[in-house]
Amino acid sequence: MPNQKILYVTTEMFPYQEDTNMGSLVHKMALKMHASGNDVRVFMPRFGQISERKFQLHEVIRLSGMNIIINDLDQPLIIKVASLPGERLQVYFIDNEEYFKRKQYYHDDEGKAFEDNNERAIFFARGVIETIKKLNWVPDVIHLNGWMSSLIPIYLKTYYKDDTYFNDTKIVLSVYNEDDIELNSNTKEVLAFDNISGLESLDNPSFLNFVNDSMQYVDVIVKGNEFLEEKLEEAYGKANAEKSDYLNADSIATVY
């Protein structure tokens, strides 16, 4: 079905991350939908390991400059963009010196999880939403991949519930067997600042518990792995959204 506006939000994508199931699948899905005549855009975090020189990232001044308040602190939103190597497909990178300059993804050099992983995910989710609005581009489908993106439907249905911008947008969530990492115990207080409460994950905040919560806020859930680990499989089974088993890039259009 061509002529759809499809937004992929992901924490991983080839070639910016190599040798991951999620990164490879998102890359293939985006290219397939782009080649089929759809208006496709991709958003992801600008992790410090992503070389700006190698991938020719450049800042988009007209989209940058906004501040997002996280835990009562103003954090500048920087938007960078690049074309997927060899393709006319734009990838937007959410950036911030405080949250994404570091070279590691979620752990420090000693293997300890970053205490602000929760704030980084909130900043990413709100940064994507605000940037899409600033682009004046209304997606028909938002396809979420990776634990950071799972906060987007939660925010859309709570913090942004009175905003009509995404009223006609359908949300697809792909669920992957990601590493489950605990989040800071202050997560409940940080989200309460945005008037978000009542999530099951807040009593035991972690990467996959947020994914579990997000399943209640989306239209379709797709298995990103053929077999999900037990906790995800259980949440998948309980969710009220439409469900799909694992689909490769050639078949994903059936969901849209």
TrEMBL record:
InterPro entries: Starch_synth_cat_dom. Its EC number is 2.4.1.21. The keyword Transferase applies. Gene3D superfamilies: Glycogen Phosphorylase B. It comes from the Bacteria. It catalyses: [(1->4)-alpha-D-glucosyl](n) + ADP-alpha-D-glucose = [(1->4)-alpha-D-glucosyl](n+1) + ADP + H(+). Residues 5-220 form the Starch synthase catalytic domain. Keywords: Glycosyltransferase, Transferase. PANTHER family: ALPHA AMYLASE DOMAIN-CONTAINING PROTEIN (PTHR45825:SF11), GRANULE-BOUND STARCH SYNTHASE 1, CHLOROPLASTIC/AMYLOPLASTIC (PTHR45825). This is starch synthase. It comes from Epilithonimonas ginsengisoli.
